[in-house]
């Protein structure tokens, strides 16, 4: 009888701490390795850095193109001639057109 009461008391006193430890372990696991945990946060930061670099490259290319478009609209004869030669591959008599990579 005495043993049964001490076992019951021991079990009763250890239930609440066991449940608390299980809840803390559950939320702790998902705080580290869950879908929105710290490990996922570092992956998101790495992808964000790559995306920002790609955005900067795209914005720089857009700025270059807008500048060239403004020059063409303003009637810059050198740029228009350069563009015509690159597209048509023609020149004056006696000239040879050599294609080159765009800059």
Word description of this protein:
There is one protein chain. The chain has 2 domains: 1-33; 46-91. The chain is built from 3 helices and no strands. It has helices at 2-33, 38-74, 77-88. The mean pLDDT is 85.
Short key terms for the protein model shown above:
3 helices, mainly alpha
* Total discrete domains: 2
Radius of gyration: 35 Å
Helix content: over 70%
Which strand-content bin applies to the residues? Answer: under 5%
User: What is the multimeric organization of the chains shown?
Assistant: single chain
Number of strands: 0
Note the gap between the termini. 93 Å
Mean pLDDT: 85
**Count of helices?**
3
Spell the H/E element sequence: HHH
Q: Which structural category fits the helices and strands?
A: mainly alpha
Given the C-alpha coordinates, what overall shape results?
rod-shaped
What does the secondary structure layout of this molecule look like, with pairings?
Elements: H1 2-33, H2 38-74, H3 77-88
Summarize the structure.
The protein is an all-alpha fold. The chain is built from three helices and no strands.
């Amino acid at each position: 009888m005495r043993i049964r009461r001490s076992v019951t008391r021991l079990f009763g006193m250890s239930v609440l701490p066991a449940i608390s430890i299980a809840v803390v372990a559950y939320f702790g696991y998902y705080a580290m390795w869950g879908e929105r945990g710290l490990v996922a946060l570092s992956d998101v930061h790495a992808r964000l850095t790559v995306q920002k670099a790609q955005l900067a490259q795209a914005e720089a290319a857009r700025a270059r193109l807008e500048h060239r478009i403004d020059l063409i609209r303003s009637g810059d004869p050198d740029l228009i001639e350069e563009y015509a030669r690159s597209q048509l591959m023609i020149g004056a008599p006696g000239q040879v057109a050599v294609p080159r990579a765009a800059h």
